[in-house]
Design a protein that fits this description.
four-stranded antiparallel β-sheet; alpha+beta; six-stranded antiparallel β-sheet; 42% helix; 582 residues; C8orf32 fold; elongated; 3 domains
């Protein structure tokens, strides 16, 4: 099969190791052991380490951890876009993937939990039409997209795709990029970073101060979580309305479906407490005003009293909130008077509106009354202050309670998990890249996440090549579809025209669809891409790919195709693959 001498992957874990090369959303859902290794693969990559030479990170060590994270956020905002083009990595079929995953999870469980197989979330998502929002609504038949996750190299390579100027990635890609960058650039210990996946989103919780959530390219602090802005409302959406499917940590993971969990239970308990604290706040004037910002339909119940030219005047609350969009001041904080002073006088009424509640009274009310919305008595007490003719007071208090207090739907909510933690990933802060790779090498024999990291990183020198090869030949729909109408000589010509430059460094390699999308690849990668295309046309033909340090050669049906390669390893790949070795 291969002249590389790395021990073969056990037969019972072959599919998991092969999935490490393609990292689709559904593969990570079925094999949660793949989630954290993407962080580790990015940690081993030279790419993020090179960021430290950028002037943007000069004198970084003099900043507080929080300021470092804020500067990192801006760097990611400037260099990466959020990519939600579901067809970037091609299409497959539900039936094909369900058959592939049948030994690991039944159809009903997959369709109930994964967005590509019909999941739509709770009532909120039906109202939002979430499948249309994500572009999933057009996949009503058996055809579904390969919703793949990218390594940092594949994210950077988006700059070579039409319509892109910088890197890009979907939510899992961005969350794992953030996790690696937080360690490398901000010296945040891996123990303080938790990866949180729901069926339609992925984000991180960083255990620093009150906590920080990464949300695609942005960051969300506790204050931002409760500020009621449109951005914060979107950031809240996943945890408010979805089941947490996976929590991954350097100590392991817990999954909503699987009964056994490998995460350290003490670390998981700590995470739950910290996230609960982040998602809950005591009601106060500012929280009430922020709640109204997020719920404009409730603003019609309120008015704001304000003195203008020595006389009391009253303003409909919705007028003040609308004006926030055109100035730096807010209804909810100490800048309220400045906001109202900028507004035209004809917006105000000379007398209070009898059917509206004066918001100003809550500045004093919460100073003298401690309200715990978890208590029915306190909810009724506060409700007596909401004398509004437009809305049901009970509904308003209920919505305010939901705004202030969120209990996530944890992976173990349906029943107790059996925690069987194994060895955690041990990478102390302050390691160099070389020391980090050496540490993971030492840990991979006893820690599956450390071992899988080398497969996620496509390191040909440190892995059994069969899973990578299998993924390349069987799960590369982009190059196959793009060349469907071409004859083979045209396909070979297109490959030879591409830049002889891999998006990966050193002994690592791209998958065929990465080659085709970016229009570049090393000779070995081009031979692999051609093999995937030819195999799709003639699946019964056996073939061989070899490298000799100078050239990569594909021998297929008595034809030989040669491409120059930078890989100095001697590699031999033969199809069909012998998968029964253990």
């Amino acid at each position: 099969m291969s002249t590389t001498s790395f021990p073969p992957v056990p037969a019972d874990r072959y599919e998991e190791y092969s999935s490490a090369s393609t990292l689709s959303d559904m593969e990570i859902f079925i094999f949660p052991n793949l989630f954290y290794p993407l962080v580790l693969a990015n940690l081993m990559s030279p790419r993020i380490w090179q960021w430290r030479a950028d002037p943007w990170f000069a004198n970084f060590s003099k900043l507080t951890p929080y300021r470092r994270i804020q500067r990192l956020k801006q760097y990611i905002m400037d260099h990466y876009a959020f990519n939600l083009d579901l067809e970037t990595w091609g299409l497959t079929t539900q039936e094909r993937e369900l058959e592939r995953f049948a030994p690991y999870m039944d159809r009903e469980t997959i369709s109930r939990s994964n967005a590509l197989f019909g999941y739509e979330g709770d009532r909120f998502y039906f109202d939002l039409d979430i499948r249309r929002h994500f572009g999933l609504d057009k996949y009503t038949s058996d055809i579904i997209p390969y919703w793949k996750t990218e390594t940092v190299e594949a994210m950077d390579a988006f700059q070579f795709l039409p319509g892109h100027e910088n890197g890009a990635g979907e939510c899992v890609s961005l969350s794992t990029l953030y996790a690696a960058a937080l360690y490398i650039l901000c010296d945040i210990p891996l123990e303080d970073i938790y990866l949180v996946a729901t069926p339609l989103h992925s984000q991180n919780f960083v255990d620093l101060k009150e906590g920080i959530l990464t949300n695609n390219r942005r960051l969300v602090t506790k204050n931002m979580w409760f500020n009621g802005t449109e951005l914060s409302t979107k950031a809240r959406r996943a945890l408010e309305n979805e089941q947490i499917t996976i929590v991954a940590h350097c100590s392991g993971w817990v999954h909503a479906v699987y009964p056994q969990a490998g995460i350290d239970p003490a670390a998981y308990d700590h995470f739950q407490k910290r996230l609960r604290d982040f998602l809950n706040a005591e009601v106060s004037p500012e929280i009430l005003f922020n709640f109204l910002r997020q719920n404009p339909e409730r603003q019609r119940c309120f008015q704001i009293e304000h003195e203008r030219f020595g006389r009391r005047r009253w303003l409909p609350a919705e007028k003040a909130y609308a004006y926030e969009n055109s100035c730096p001041y807010k209804v909810s904080d100490r800048t309220r008077d400045k906001l109202l002073a900028e507004m035209d006088g004809d917006e105000f009424f000379p007398e209070p509106m009898t059917d509206r509640i004066p918001l100003n009274k809550f500045d004093d009310y919460f100073h003298h009354n401690h309200i715990d919305l978890a208590k029915e008595e306190d909810r009724q007490k506060l409700g007596r202050e909401f004398t509004c003719y437009h809305d049901n007071t009970g509904e308003v208090i209920k919505e305010l309670h939901a705004f202030c207090h969120l209990e996530p739907r944890w992976p173990d909510a349906a029943g107790a998990k059996t925690f069987r933690p194994g060895p955690r990933i041990d990478l102390p802060a302050g390691l160099t890249r070389e020391q980090l790779i050496a540490a993971l090498e030492r840990q991979r024999q006893d820690n599956p996440m450390a071992d899988l990291a080398f497969y996620v990183g496509r390191d040909l020198a440190r892995t059994d090549l069969r899973p990578f090869f299998q993924a390349a030949i069987e799960r590369s729909p982009v190059c196959i579809e793009a060349t469907r109408t071409m004859d083979i000589s045209m396909v070979v010509g297109r490959l030879r025209e591409m830049a002889n430059d891999s998006i990966y460094d050193e002994t690592r390699a791209a998958q065929p669809d990465e080659v085709w999308n970016t229009r570049r690849g090393d000779g070995f990668e081009k031979a692999l891409t051609l093999a995937a295309i030819l195999h799709a046309r003639q699946p019964q033909v056996a073939f061989t790919i070899r490298t000799d340090g100078e050239n990569a050669t594909l021998a297929f049906a008595e034809q030989v195709y040669t491409f120059p390669t930078r890989h100095t390893m001697s590699i031999t790949l033969e199809w069909p693959i012998a998968r029964d070795r253990d």
